[in-house]
Design goal:
By secondary structure, this protein is mostly helical. It has a single domain, classed as Ferritin, CATH 1.20.1260. Helices cover 83% and strands 0% of the residues. It is built from seven helices and no strands. Helix 3 packs antiparallel against helix 4, helix 3 runs parallel beside helix 5 and helix 5 packs antiparallel against helix 6. The longest helix is centred in the last third of the chain and has 33 residues. The protein is elongated and about 60 Å long. It binds fe (ii) ion (FE2) (2 copies). The site of one fe (ii) ion has 6 residues, from helix 4, helix 6 and helix 7. One fe (ii) ion binds next to helix 4, helix 6 and helix 7.
Length: 197
């Protein structure tokens, strides 16, 4: 009995910001005064992934440099180009939301990129074992991005930010492609070649 009361209470609290559609349109046109908690959270998360993408722009060349096989170098270099577009796309998102682009340190991506740097230290140059390690490090970053963009695109739809959602979904699709191409490299030959070292 007390559970149903709690549920009702929670639903009522949640409905407030979503029901206020005038707040949504105000935010789209740039006003921040009436942002709901969900809108604030969304904006904050966009700052977080913006920082993460910029961090990856710095990190991907290091991964490409450290890679042994040409295909893996190319995969990282190719994804660097795409990542630059992700940064630009997020700047478009800030613009649509009526905010200036602002980065907020993403502790998760900081950790993931630190781990990338440490696998370079821990593996020998010119080996396929290093490539195996780099692929795994790269995929950890991609999976973080996939989780983030998937969630953000959903929230954008919920908030009625359809144009923003489409932009985030485009990036989500490209993160999944990057992840798949790394899997293909690992399964194609790199893992197997590493067994001979
Ligand atoms: Fe990205
Ligand atoms: Fe990515």
């Amino acid at each position: 009995m007390s559970t149903s009361t709690q549920k009702g209470g929670a639903a009522a609290t949640h409905k407030k910001p979503a029901a206020s559609s005038s707040e949504k349109s105000k935010t789209k046109s740039g006003s921040r005064a009436n942002d709901s908690k969900l809108q604030e959270f969304f904006h904050d998360e966009i700052k977080d992934i913006y920082w993460a993408e910029k961090k990856l722009v710095q990190t991907l060349p290091k991964l490409a440099n450290a890679a042994t096989s040409e295909e893996l170098k190319n995969a990282f270099t190719q994804h660097l180009k795409v990542t630059g577009e992700h940064v630009t796309r997020l700047e478009k998102v800030f613009d649509i939301l009526g905010h200036k682009p602002q980065a907020k340190k993403c502790d998760a991506m900081e950790g993931i990129t630190e781990e990338g740097a440490s696998v370079i230290e821990d593996t020998e140059e010119g080996t396929h074992t290093r490539d195996v390690a780099l692929i795994m490090a790269g995929q950890k970053a991609e999976h973080y991005e996939i989780a983030t963009y998937g969630g953000l695109a959903q929230v954008a739809r919920t908030l009625g930010y359809d144009e923003v959602a489409s932009l985030l979904e485009q990036t989500l699709k490209e993160e999944k492609e990057a992840d798949q191409s790394l899997t293909a490299l690992a399964e194609g030959s790199i893992n197997e070649e590493a067994t001979e070292e």
